[in-house]
Each structure stands twice: as structure tokens, then as C-alpha cells.
Write a structure and sequence with these properties.
It is a single chain. Among the domains are: about 1-115, Leucine-rich Repeat Variant; about 140-205, no CATH class; about 775-960, Leucine-rich Repeat Variant, CATH 1.25.10; about 960-1055, no CATH class. By secondary structure, it is mainly α. Helix 1 (about 1-15) runs parallel beside helix 3, helix 2 (about 20-35) packs parallel to helix 4 (about 60-80) and helix 27 packs parallel to helix 29 (about 565-580). It has a two-stranded antiparallel ribbon. The protein has 62 helices and two strands. The model is unreliable at about 315-340, about 410-420, about 945-960 and about 1170-1183 (pLDDT under 50). Strand 1 (about 1015-1020) and strand 2 (about 1025-1030) form a beta hairpin. Keywords: Repeat, Ubl conjugation pathway. It comes from Myripristis murdjan. Belongs to the CAND family. This is Cullin-associated and neddylation-dissociated 1. It holds the Pfam family TIP120.
Amino acid sequence: MASASYHISNLLEKMTSSDKDFRFMATNDLMSELQKDSIKLDDDSERKVVKMILKLLEDKNGEVQNLAVKCLGPLVSKVKEYQVETIVDTLCTNMLSDKEQLRDISSIGLKTVIGELPPASSGSALAASVCKKITGRLTSAIAKQEDVSVQLEALDIMADMLCRQGGLLVNFHPSILSCLLPQLTSPRLAVRKRTIMALGHLVMSCGNLVFIDLIEHLLTELGRNDNMSTTRTYIQCTAAISRQAGHRIGEYLEKIIPLVVKFCNVDDDELREYCIQAFESFVRRCPKEVYPHVPTVISLCLRYLTYDPNYNYDDEDEDDNAMDAEQNDEDYQGSDDEYSDDDDMSWKVRRAAAKCLDAVVSTRHEMLPEFYRSVSPALVCRFKEREENVKADVFHAYLSLLKQTRPAQSWLADPDAMEQGDTPLTMLQSQVPMIVKALHKQLKEKSVKTRQCCFNMLTELVNVLPGALTQHIPVLIPGIIFSLNDKSSSSNLKIDALACLYVVMVTHPAHAFHAHVPALVPPVVSCVGDPFYKITSEALLVTQQLVKVIRPLDSQQDGSETFDPSPYINDLFTCTIRRLKAADIDQEVKERAISCMGQIICNLGDRLPTELPGTLLIFLERLKNEITRLTTVKALTLIAGSPLNIDLRPVLPDAVPILASFLRKNQRALKLCTLAALDILLRNYSSAVTPAMVDAVLAELPPLISESDMHVSQMALSFLSTLAVTHPSSLGQLSGGNILVQLIALVRSPLLQGGALAAMLDFYQALVATDTPGLGYMDLLRMLTGPVYSQNAALPHKQAYCSIAKCVAALTRACPAEGPAVVGQFIQDVKNSRSTDSIRLLALLSLGEVGHHVDLSSQPELKTVILDAFSSSSEEVKSAASYALGSIAVGNLPEYLPFVLQEISSSKRQYLLLHSLKEIIGSASVAGLKPYVESVWSLLLKHCECQEEGTRNVVLKNTLPRDFLKTLEDPDLNVRRVALVTFNSAAHNKPSLIRELLDSVLPHLYNETKVRKELIREVEMGPFKHTVDDGLDLRKAAFECMYTLLDSCLDRLDIFTFLNHVEDGLKDHYDIKMLTFLMLARLSSLCPSAVLQRLDRLVEPLRATCTTKVKANSVKQEFEKQDELKRSAMRAVVALLTIPEAEKSPLMSEFQSQISSNQELAAIFDSIQRDSSSANMESMDTS
């Protein structure tokens, strides 16, 4: 401590030296001392240091002054409050000094101090007192000052302070406003501009009364319209307020917009530009309130998009440039004194109009058809714009239109939706020729920026409408080649041109390019040789696609090979092999070279007899390298699958053991690709794969077959199925081995389903067909069903019985001769009174699975046995029997369906029989069901009136559109819940069914999201009271529907009503919070502007979730739940922060500083931001 203060007093002494170098070094040392956390100053030292630094601000040497200003930052946080006030006082006084240099340095000093103050959210008293002190001095400086430069500095500092600490100055807001408003009429434009900035920051944090005063003042002044210059300023100010606080200005738009429209028609270019900019900010920031005015805004923008009074566009078809030059000469001579091009401000109006259209297109998804009718042709016509900046904005607006067309494809591709006539896609399709014509001219422009815009446009167009350019390829290819060959073009332009070419090639048929291959190959080959790695890597991608174009393998079969690839093979091979051999190149280029060479060998290998062996050896080298092995495995898979039967025999003895060793590695992608590669090698090269190689692979398989990774298990199973076909002899070692044990364990896993289950069934069928000793039909059957019959213990999970039954059915289908005996045995098992429930369960499920594929009508007692099982005491046996009946009926509809329908009409067991009917409707082919549809409908509708709720529920799931709305109003909770689940499934799988119903369904849906007090009851459990919410499942179903609608019917939703309910969900039960956090993340990417308007209301519940503490004596699950909630809430916060202007919201920035100051939250926040999976969160599916 003593040494520190001694050191500092030493420095202070040096600071008084007459030598500027001494002063500089001493200040520098003081700076580094102050930055240390350990430094503590006593009162005396504090006073001396502060006094010295303030004195150095007036130093004659500029560098010393600069350093002294920098010292202020760390100093503020180290000294006591009254010293900070001394600093601020002195700086404020210096601001008013006569010396310009001192004024400048003091204003920098004030900004430094304000920047160092702790944020408003930390509630520090220091920040509040400093800001109050500065504010008083600044307002007087702004109001009274004659000197403009002082005013400008003061306004700048005021804006800075309002932005950082606005919340602390609430009491001063009225006085700040009254000193700022008069400055809007200042004779100096710079003063007005800074005043507008300060007002923009003021409205973010000011109270409602101040806001109303400001808006009223603006409206009155705009109404008076004294002179043009101030009117421009007021319009600019309105736009700035709407940009900063759009959610607040919304209610005044009715008064503001007519005024702005009026000024748009005044002949003053600058005013027009500001008016259109104001419209843009209204459209982006107040989407809901601006809605009625959008048509007006669009028509104004379309009018001013072509506003170019000083230029004549008539001479388009002739040689543009020559004409322009002549015209300019004549103009120049004739009108020397009247007009010069520098005075022409009309381009600013056009640019503002293009940007405003961009905003309209991006925010009003539901008006797409209208945009394609009016906006699209107008934008395409303006691609010829002469001002480059404006042209870029026109292109950007069109890109936004295309991007808006893209997300809707999920339902546009739906055949039912296509019948609605003019969908946006069909309208776009009809405008493609016009777009291509406009782009064709621009692709040969000198300007790099213009050409880049064209490439982006083409890329996006092809992504929205794959194949749209097939007729126009001849027009576009020369334009692309022009940019690839252009010596002057920048590397970015080449990369864009290559990327565009790639996307066009991928999305169009190969024959469309055949005429252009001679022109395309040389520039692409020279790009592969380019020294810049990014160009090389794009060019390799294009080359890979080009190989598929010059020899598409799918046309090989019908012998219609009309195009001869031979002239180009050598060039493509040479340029790729050079990149493949190079060891010292960029990782990305290495990988792309491997993939590209794989494609060349796959499509052209038969034409490269001499080069092939050497290239395969390079592949073998790359396979041994950890960095390139994954890409090489993919390339080998491609080559092995080629219909040209490329000779891989020379490398197989080395390659297969290496591949087998990859199955041990931890990298999951590598395992999956390796299994795929081994599978295809077995299929196509079985003669070259020796038993020793197979054994090496088999040794690695057991650990891969497990429930911990179903996808890897599935690939391993399909490899085994292939092996059973190609090397049946190798399967002999399975009978005692580990693999079978793993297989049986997997069959009993509750997670086995989908692809893995299908692969398992295929394998059993392939295995039983090999007739391997010890693995015959009966052996396998015993292994599968043994545990159930040995009666040791029931299997832990019902799903296991279903999987075993499916495997039994697969074996039985493969060995039809064994079928009848086994079916008879199962029927006996169900009849036998000594059978346990689990034996009956397995027998019934197996009968169902076998009957699904094999007609069992030859078994006379089957129907009675199953109907008897309906009266079993075990619920599981009953439901298995109803499933079995439905499934057997699918195997022979004419025999069983009438029987089921008759039983439903006459019997008491309707609930079970209706489940059988549901199984039939779900699995039978449409053609088979046709004759019975009417009788099924009438039966179901009759049962809708049934008393028993369960029966009604089942009926509901079977009938969707006919009586759907009634069920949403049913008094019974469960019926409403099932109705919502059904609706969700329809919204997910067949959105076209419900799109038209949405207007009537949504009010009911939103109604179900509310918490109902009357459904919450208290249950006493011994000494504890426990609340139970019966409405929770219903609310959950409603929120799930809302989530699904975001994907399939976004354009039919009113986002603001939707957000109201999301907001309620954020304060609901755990399950519902989790769903609404997911929704927020989706909404942030789908409609950011709407979310931004509601941001302040959304942040509060998120903050509440993140700061909730679990009671200390809670159970472990409670802590885990709370952690999970926090993580989910943080994901939502990270998603919200991707909206460009989110952090400007005072509440959001406050929350952010709260997160960063709390260690636990900061850790979660960082890990989510790092975790790239937060991007995949978007595509998570909750249905």
C-alpha cells in the first residue's frame, strides 16, 4: 500500500516536469497503475491524482492531453464519488471555455466518463448523481449557447448519455425535451441532425407524458408547415422516433401518415426522400398500425421508384452507352448555366422508394400475390437504373421478395393447394422471361457490384423455382463466363459467379447445358488453378457438377447418350489431380478435390484406364490421414456405387481393414459413412472381398448394435443383411457370437422403431434365407420368443412385445411353409387358460402382424378366439386383441371388414372394435377401402352421439373435417383435447385441409390457451396439499397446434394476436413455458419486426424465469427442471438477440447486463452462443 502511494507521488512529481517526454511517460505509467485491480488510493492521493490529471488536460502537448483523457476512464471507477463530481464539474466548465482545443478534449473526457459509468440496470448511485450533474450543465449549454461547436458537442454528449443512462434521468426528461425542441429549428443543419439523434435516444426511455408532448409538438409543427426546411427536419425527426420506439408511435400513425402523404406530393426531392424514409420506418416498426396504409405506401413507392425527371430512358434497344455519351454532350453545351448532374437529387428519392418497398415486402407476408401483381414487374423494370447505389437497392428489394416466397413452399408443393390458381410461385414462373431479359443486359455491365447483385438474384430465383431457367440457359451462360474470364474482376465476383453457376447446374437438367460445355470448361478449369483458395474450392464444386453434366449416369441405361464427353475428360482430370496431389493446400480445397475426383472416377472412370490405379493409390493415402479420411470414405462410396463397375480390386486388400478400424473411432459421422461404404463394396465387389476381410469387419460390429445410437445400429443391420446375401458362409460364426446377443437385446429395446426396426426385419428375413445351421426358422423363433415363454419375468416394456411380434411375422413371411403351424400354435396360446398375460399378449400381436401380410381366413377359430380375448381382465391383452383384429382384417378386407362393422353395430365392446376399425383405416390401401367408405361414415357419425366418452374420442380421431368445429366446443375437456391433437396432426401433414378453416378455428384455439381457475383443484396427500391443474393437457395441445401453424400456415395468422397468447404462455406451467420458448426462437427468425415491437413485454417473463430460485429443500427433479427452463429461456434470448435492433431496447440491454454479471447465467448464455446446435434448434420438431 505504502509503496504504491509512494510510487504514485513519484509519478505526480514527474508530471510537473518541464520536459514533455517526462510528462508523457509519467502519465503513461499512471495509466497502467490505474488499470491494475489491486490499486487502492488514500484520500490524499486521490485528490492529488485527480487534480493533476485535470491540469494535464490543459497541457501544451497534444499527446500528453490525449493520454490524460484516457486516464479518466480507469480513474472514475477507482476514486470516491465526490472526486468523480469534481472531475465532471471541471470538464463541464472547460466545455464552455474560449479555447477550442480545451473544449474538444473536455468533451472527449465527458464521453469517456459517461462510457465508464456502470450501466443503469446496476442501480449505482454514482451513475445517477453524475448524470444529474452533467444534465443540468448540458441543457443550459444547449439552450443558451451562441457558439455552434459547443452546442454540437453538448448535443453529442447528451445523446450518448440518454442512450446509456436514459433510465436514470426520468426526472430531467421534461427539461431535456424543452431544451431540445427549439434546436429543431436551428439555422445550422448539423445542430438539427444531432438534436434528432438525441430525441431518438430520449424516446427509448422517457415516460408517456414526455412522449405525448413530443409527438403533439411534431404534429402541430407539421400541420403549420411554416417553411420547407423545418418541415424536412420534423419529418426526419418523426422517422427517427419511429425507428427507436416504433411500438410507442403506433397509435399516432392515423394522424401522422396523412401529413406525410401530403408532403410526398410537394415538389422537393429532399423532403420526398425523408417522407419515404419515414414510411419505411413505420412499415418496419409498427407493422400492425400501418396495415391500413400499406396500399397507399406501395403506390407512392412505385410512383417514385421511376422518378427520374432529368433522364430519358427511351433509347433502350439501341447501343446504350453510345447514345448516353452523345446526349450528355448536347445537354452539356445547351444547358450550361441551368442544370448540372451534380444538382440532381432524384436518385435519393428512388433509393428511398426501393428501400421502402424492400421493407413492405419483408414484413407483409400475406400480400405476396398482390406484390407479384404490382411490385414485381415495377422492380424488374428498374434493373436498368443508372445510379449504381439505387440499382443495388432495387436488386435487394427483389431478393427480399424472392426470400419471402421461399418459406411458404412446404404447403405450395402440396398438390391440393396448387389448384387455387394464382399462387405466388405460378405468378413468379410467368415473370421469369421478363426477369431474365432484364438481367441479361446487367450481366455484361462494367460495374462489379451490379454483376454480384445479378448472381445473387439468379441464385435465389433458382432456389425458389428449381428448373425455372431451363429455356434461358443460352442467354445466361455467356454472362456468367464473362465474369469468370474478366481479368479485372475481383475475387468475390468470381466466387459469386461460380456459386451461381453451381446452383443453376444442380437445379436444372443436364441436357440444357450440353451445348455450352465447350465454353464452360476452360474458364472453370482456370479457376481451379487460381492461387486464391476460395476460388479454387468453389471451382472444384462446379467441376464436380460439370462432370455429372457431361456424362449423366442416369441416361446410360436407355442408351441415349448423345453427348460425347471425351474432349473434356483430360482437362478436368488434370486440373483436379493437380489439386488432389498437393499436400500444402487449404483444408477445404483438399476435401473438395477428393470429392471432385471421386465424381470424375464415378462418372468417367472407364475412360481413364491408365490414370485410374495411381489415383486410387492417392485415395488410399488420404484414407490414412485423419483430416481427410471422412471425405475419402464418401468418395470411395460414390465410386463403389458407380454403374461403370470401376475396378477397385487393387486397393481393396488395404482399404477394407482401414475401414474396419474406423468403426472403432469415436467420430459418429465417420462410423455411418464407413458402414455405408462397406455395404456398397459388399454388394458390388463381393468376389473381391475375402472372408478374412469380412471377419475383420464382423469383429467391430457388436458394440455398434445398441439402443444408444439407432442410426448406427440401422446401418450395421443393413450391412449384415447385405452380408447374408453375398457371403452367407460368413454368418456361421454368428450363432455363438456376440452379435446375436446384441440383436436380441435391441429387439427388446423400447426405442426400436422406424428405420432401425425395418432394417432389423430385413436382416431376419435375409438370415433365415441362408439356411445356416443353428440359425434356422425355429432356432430364431425360439431366441425371440423364449424369454416370454420361460415365464421368468415379464418384459419391461410393451413396445418390446410389438417388436418381437413384427420379427416373428417377418420370419414367417420368409418361410411360408412354416406359417400355418406357428399360427395354430399362437391361437392355442391365446385359448389356453394357463397362459400368462404376457404370452397371450405376444401371441395376439404376432397373429396381428402375420395376418397383416398373410391371409388368415383359413383359420376357422380365429375370430372367436380374438373376440373372447376382448373380455380378458388385462387391459393390455384387450388392446392387443383389438389391434390384432384390425391388422388381420387388412390382410383380407372382404372377409373381415364387414364382420367388424357388424360387431360394432351389435356388440357392447364398441370401444375396442372402434380401435380395430381405426387400425384398418390407418393401414389399408385406399383402393381396398373404397367400397366400404359410406357404411363406415354412417356408422361413425352415429357413434358421435354415443354417451361413453372414450368411444366418442376414438370416433373423433377418425373423422376430421366434417364435424370438426363442433368438437372444439364440446363441453368435455378430453374431447376438446383430442380434437386439438387431431387438428395439430392435420396442420402438420395436410395443411391444405385446414387452411380455409383457420379463421373459424383460431378463436377457439386461442381460447384454449388461457389458464382456467375453475379447473385447478387442491388434492390432500396426507399432510401435504397439492394443486392439480386439469386444464394443463388441453393448454399444451393448444400451444402445440400454435407451434405447428407457424410452419405450415404462417401467412394466415395475425402475428400480434398470436404473440399475445405466446406472451401468456411464457408465464404458464413448465411444459408450456418450454413450448413457448421454442416458439419465440422460431418467431425471431420468421417475423422479427413483429417480435421487436413486443420485445419489452416478452423480456420480462424471460427474465423472471432466469432469475427464479428453487427452494433449498426441493427434490433433485425440481433443480433439474429449473436448469432446463433456464437453458431454454436463454436459447430464446439468444434467438431474440439475432434480431438486428433487439439490444437497443432498454429492458433487453438491462437484462443482458444482468446476465453478464451473474456467473451462472453468463456461463449458460456463452455455452448456448457457442453451441452451433442453437442453429439447429430452429429445425427441431415438436409434433
